[in-house]
Amino acid sequence: MYVYDKANELARAIKESKEYIAMQEAKEAVAAKSEYMDMVKEFMKAQINIQTMTMMGSEVDEGTKEGFNALYTSVMNVEACRKYIEAQNIFGRMIQDVYQIIGDAGDIMNEIFKDMMGEAN
User: Which contacts qualify for 109-118: CB closer than 8 Å, 24 or more apart?
Assistant: First the structure.
C-alpha cells in the first residue's frame, strides 16, 4: 500500500503546487469573459489540429499556418489569455517531468520481462 499512499500524496502535492494554482487562477480570469474563453478554446483546437497533422506526417498548408499565427497573436495580445496559456505550458512541463520520473520506474518492469524471456541485458 505504500506506493498507493505515495501516489495519493503526489496527487495532493500537484493540486497544491504553485504551477497548478497559477493555472487555475489564470483559467478563472479567462472564464470571467466568455469571449476570452472562446478565443483560448479556438486557439487550443487549432494547436491540436496542427500537432495532429504534424504527427501524422501531413504537411500543414500555408492557410492553416497563417490562421494559427493570427489566432496566436490575438490570444497573446490579451493579457488574461496569455497568462492562462503560459500557466498551462508551465504546468504541462511539470506533469511531463513527473511522468518521466514515474516512467523511469517502468524500466524495472522491462528488466523483469527481459529476465523472464531470457534476454541478455
Answer: none
pLDDT at residue 6, rounded to an integer = 93
Among 5-14, 41-50, 111-120, the minimum mean pLDDT is found in 111-120
Question: Could you tell me which residues come within 8 angstroms of residue 59 by beta carbon, excluding any fewer than 6 positions away?
Answer: 53
pTM: 0.81
Q: Where are the domains of the chain?
A: 2-117
**Superfamily for the 2-117 domain:** YheA/YmcA-like (1.20.1500.10)
3-state SS record for the chain: CHHHHHHHHHHHHHHHCHHHHHHHHHHHHHHCCHHHHHHHHHHHHHHHHHHHHHHCCCCCCHHHHHHHHHHHHHHHCCHHHHHHHHHHHHHHHHHHHHHHHHHHHHHHHHHHHHHHHCCCC
Among 50, 55, 29, which Cα is nearest to 40's? Answer: 29
CA–CA separation, 10 vs 89, rounded Å?
20
